[in-house]
């Protein structure tokens, strides 16, 4: 196994005007790790995730992904790689959104092959063949020609996961993937994520599903006040009476 | 009545139709150019470059703030003084398309802005370039949203093009005026002119509707929703 971490973040800062959302986040992710980011709303979880994918431009800090330094500080000045290298990196760490964000003018199959054909420049027929396999895996092989607005929320989210998988990603970022779903549709999406974890996919997942995090996480990071206040295995962080009173009260509040 | 149907119509209708052909040519050309101008201006303004934004904004405000007939007269009579002489027809096309472009740019801009930014972000997050996202995801949807409004502008244009008769273009209204000048049959001839305009507009309106339907995925088309296509039956099965 390669010892080099897949993602290394240090001193990541992000502010909008005067409000500082991230205040120096450090995080290292090993290949195959499943990391959950939990914590109160407004604590910076989603912003951290969006900075990793550069949907938000960090203000300062260093991010190294699969050995490539995407941004760093040069004499106190923030520098990042050019757009085309950024796009290459992004295609290897796609994101799954709370609101699914499927391309509504494209069918399920077209949503999934869009990236492979138009970003990775794969031949269309190959991309279609692979997309069929992936869509079969997420249980949507009967919906290839449907448009997103013909699907339930759970199905849409599984298409979004398939779209991410079609990029043959090194890492998948999940931003509250089940928060917009009706309760009865949540389990299908969680099953899909569980299956990916078993296959060794590296994932960073922002969620409020504490039980899910407890069962699946290699590591849970408690994010609040713009930083990772504590991190550890689910047992360390959740099971034992938490050392940190903030975490204890957060977990308490999640159990209601 | 007998006179109108069997004497006047056979005698003058062909001449009026020739004018109608020019009206159509003017309208179609101006529409095509107007759409290009409108799209370019909308995209330019959405690029968020101040040096690009403010001249485009001036263009939109100016052209929407001056009556079309004045714009046409200015183009036809003023441009020759700076050495650019256009025939009445091309002056008309230029005037109509610049005027239309100003209005359509706002239509396109609003349509693009009405799409949520989520799809844009999804495209970015899988490594698509901004241009590709626009071309493959945003514009197809925005154009679909804009089509009914753009179609409405086309129907207005068919009629507004009659203003081009002010700069001596031999389109439908002017052909009517020529006939009237020779025959003094103003009521009958204007009636014929009105009928032709109405038919043109009516056909155009049906055409716009047809295009709208064609661009809508089958399951969302009005009127076809009830008859159970394979897709809609599968859908109810999936939802149940």
Describe the structure.
- The complex is a heterodimer of chains A (256) and B (240).
- Chain A is of the alpha/beta class and 256 residues long.
- Helices cover 37% and strands 26% of the residues of chain A.
- In chain A, the strands form two sheets. A six-stranded mixed beta sheet of chain A has the order 7-8-9-3-10-11, sandwiched between helices.
- The mean pLDDT of chain A is 90.
- Chain B has nine helices and no strands.
- In chain B, helix 1 packs antiparallel against helix 7, helix 3 crosses helix 4 and helix 5 packs antiparallel against helix 6.
- The longest helix of chain B has 45 residues.
- Chain B starts with a helix and ends with a helix.
- Chains A and B meet through helix 2, helix 3 and helix 5 of A and helix 5, helix 6 and helix 9 of B.
Radius of gyration of chain B: 23 Å
Q: What class, by secondary structure content of chain B?
A: mainly alpha
Percent in helix of chain A: 25-40%
How many H/I helices of chain A? 9
- Using CB atoms under 8 Å apart, which protein chain pair has the greatest interface? A-B, 39 and 26 residues
- In CATH terms, the superfamily of chain B is MetI-like
If classified by CATH, what would the architecture of chain B be?
Orthogonal Bundle
Describe the oligomeric state of these chains in a short phrase.
heterodimer
Mean pLDDT of chain A, nearest integer? 90
Structural class of chain A: alpha/beta
**What are the segments of chain B in which pLDDT stays under 50 over at least 5 consecutive residues?**
223-240
Mean pLDDT of chain B: 86
What Rg of chain A, in angstroms, do the CA atoms define?
18 Å
* Separation of the first and last Cα atoms of chain A: 41 Å
Order of helices and strands of chain A: EEEHEEEHEHHHEHEHEEHH
Strand order of the largest sheet of chain A: 7-8-9-3-10-11
CATH class category label of chain B: Mainly Alpha
Shape of chain B: flat
Q: What share of residues are in beta strands of chain B?
A: under 5%
């Amino acid at each position: 196994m390669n010892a080099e971490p897949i993602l290394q973040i240090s001193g990541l800062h992000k502010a909008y005007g005067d409000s500082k959302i991230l205040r120096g986040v450090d995080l290292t992710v090993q290949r195959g790790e499943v990391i959950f980011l939990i914590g109160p709303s407004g604590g910076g979880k989603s912003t951290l995730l969006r900075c990793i994918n550069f949907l938000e431009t960090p203000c300062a800090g260093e991010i190294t992904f699969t050995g490539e330094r995407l941004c760093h500080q040069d004499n106190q000045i923030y520098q990042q790689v050019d757009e085309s290298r950024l796009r290459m990196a992004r295609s290897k760490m796609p994101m799954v959104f709370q609101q699914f964000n499927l391309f509504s003018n494209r069918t399920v199959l077209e949503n999934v092959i869009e990236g492979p054909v138009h970003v990775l420049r794969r031949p269309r027929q190959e991309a279609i063949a692979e997309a069929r396999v992936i869509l079969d895996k997420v249980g949507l092989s009967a919906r290839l020609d449907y448009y997103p607005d013909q699907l339930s929320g759970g199905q849409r989210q599984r298409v979004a996961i398939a779209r991410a998988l079609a990029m043959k990603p090194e890492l998948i970022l999940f931003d509250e993937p089940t928060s917009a779903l009706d309760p009865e549709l949540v389990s299908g999406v969680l099953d899909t994520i569980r299956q990916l974890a078993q296959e060794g996919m590296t994932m960073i997942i922002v969620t409020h599903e504490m039980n899910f995090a407890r069962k699946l996480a290699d590591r849970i990071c408690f994010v609040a006040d713009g930083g990772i206040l504590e991190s550890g295995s689910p047992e360390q962080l959740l099971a034992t009476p938490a050392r940190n009173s903030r975490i204890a009260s957060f977990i308490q509040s999640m159990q209601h | 009545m007998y006179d109108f149907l069997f004497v006047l119509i056979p005698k003058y209708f062909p001449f009026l139709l020739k004018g109608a052909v020019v009206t159509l040519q003017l309208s179609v050309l101006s529409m095509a150019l107007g759409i290009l101008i409108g799209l370019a201006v909308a995209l330019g303004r959405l690029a968020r470059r101040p040096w690009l934004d403010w001249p485009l904004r001036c263009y939109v405000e100016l052209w929407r703030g001056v009556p079309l007939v004045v714009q046409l007269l200015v183009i036809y009579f003023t441009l020759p003084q700076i050495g650019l002489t256009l025939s009445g027809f091309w002056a008309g096309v230029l005037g109509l398309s610049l005027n239309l472009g100003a209005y359509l740019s706002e239509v396109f801009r609003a349509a693009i802005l009405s799409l949520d930014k989520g799809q844009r972000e999804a495209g970015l997050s899988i490594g698509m370039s901004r241009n590709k996202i626009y071309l493959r995801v945003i514009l197809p949807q925005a154009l679909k949203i804009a089509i009914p409004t753009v179609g409405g502008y086309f129907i207005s244009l068919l009629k507004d093009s009659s203003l081009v008769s002010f700069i001596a273009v031999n389109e439908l209204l002017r052909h009517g005026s020529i006939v009237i000048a020779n025959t003094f049959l103003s009521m009958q001839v204007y009636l014929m002119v009105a009928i032709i305009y109405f038919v043109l507009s009516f056909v155009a309106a049906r055409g716009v509707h047809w295009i709208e339907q064609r661009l809508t995925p089958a399951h969302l088309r009005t009127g076809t929703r009830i008859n159970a296509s394979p897709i809609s039956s599968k859908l109810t099965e999936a939802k149940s």
